[in-house]
Amino acid sequence: MRVFVTGGAGFVGSHVASVLLQAGHQVTVLDNLSTGHRELVPKGAAFIRGDLKQQAKLMGWLTGHDVVMHLAALVPVPTSVKMPVQFAENNVVNTVRLLEGMRQAAVRRIVFSSSATVYGHPKRLPLSEDDPIQTQSNPYGATKVAAEAFLAVYHNLYGFDVTLLRYFNPYGPNELCMPETHAIPNIVRAALTDQPIPVYWKGEQVRDYIYIEDLARAHVAVLDQKGLNVFNVGTEKGTSVKQVLQAVTDIMGRPLPINDLGARAGDVPALYASSERLRKATGWQAQVGLEEGLRLTVEFFRERIAKERVG
Fold first, then answer.
1. Which residues make beta-bridge pairs with 169?
2. What's the predicted TM-score (pTM) here?
3. Residue-wise pLDDT tens for the chain (311 aa)?
4. How far from the centroid of its chain's Cα atoms is residue 276's Cα?
5. Are 32 and 51 in contact (CB under 8 A)?
6. How far is the C-alpha of 298 from the C-alpha of 241, rounded, in Å?
7. Which of 119, 140, 154, 171 is catalytic?
8. How buried is residue 305: exposed, middle or buried, by Cβ count under 10 Å (0-12/13-18/19+)?
């Protein structure tokens, strides 16, 4: 297939583009490089430096493609609280612009990068796709809910094949977000630079940490899905921050200093997925265990920090 990947120079998008190429697909990456990195776009992918705001150009960029993987978005939750209008413009309005460009270019299939944040504070675990969408506590989560709603509208009005992938907690190489708000890259970077590791809630929070290549493979697995589909993408295992800390400590081979930051408003105590629906529909399941994934992540950041110091 000819696949158009928005945000393909970012953390998740660069891995999705790479896995698509490995599977024999043709890939075009669109990224404005505001948060992405040109060096992360895999060789073999065509690259367009552009923005979804450039609506007049979208039809031309999209024409000839079979499917869109839409991963371009602003992500950090704390930043969304400070910049709600920018997040709504980038994550929601630009999604509608993309959908209109697809309609004009006669591209009728899209896979969307959504988030487990749409579930809000869960009433039961593991979370399934049938659990209700909750009222959101931050603009980032609200943008994901709104974008999902517009995608469903284009399915209903124009017959788009829409697949919503609700990510849980991806981690791994290429995660170069600024500011970084995710636990694992902050833990690994602090460990490698001998800095105290920031820890909230004594590390008791439980999350579903999925290695980035497993997440990327899920995008390839759903390429042929028709209709309107919603899939959770997680390992189906809850892991506490304390367990992550212990695993990184074992990899580093030395005790790690901790900066106990106490409580943090808005945190959900526990969140992990049921991915049974995705497994039954496609055969996909997570393959990389936490220890292996963390070891690969540490190797990536060790090399990255060394380059940063030289640069």
1. 209
2. 0.95
3. 999 999 999 999 999 999 999 999 999 999 999 999 999 999 999 999 999 999 999 999 999 999 999 999 999 888 899 999 999 999 999 999 999 999 999 999 999 999 999 998 888 999 999 999 989 989 999 999 999 999 999 999 999 999 999 999 999 999 987 777 788 999 999 999 999 998 999 999 999 999 999 999 999 999 999 999 999 999 999 999 999 999 999 999 999 999 998 987 777 889 999 999 999 999 999 999 999 999 999 999 999 999 888 86
4. 19
5. yes
6. 16
7. 140
8. middle
Q: How far apart are CA 217 and CA 215, in angstroms?
A: 5
State both tokens at 51: 């923005």
202-229: burial string, b at 16+ Cβ within 10 Å, e else: ebebbbbbbbbbbbbbbbbbbbebeeeb
Closest of 24, 25, 28, 30 to residue 9, by C-alpha: 30
- Residue 211 among the catalytic residues: no
Q: Which domains does the chain have, with CATH numbers?
A: 2-239+248-310 (3.40.50.720)
The runs of H, that is alpha helices, within 88-175 are 94-105, 139-158
**Which of 112, 94, 218 shows the shortest CA–CA distance to 161?**
112
Residue owning tokens 């909230």: 200
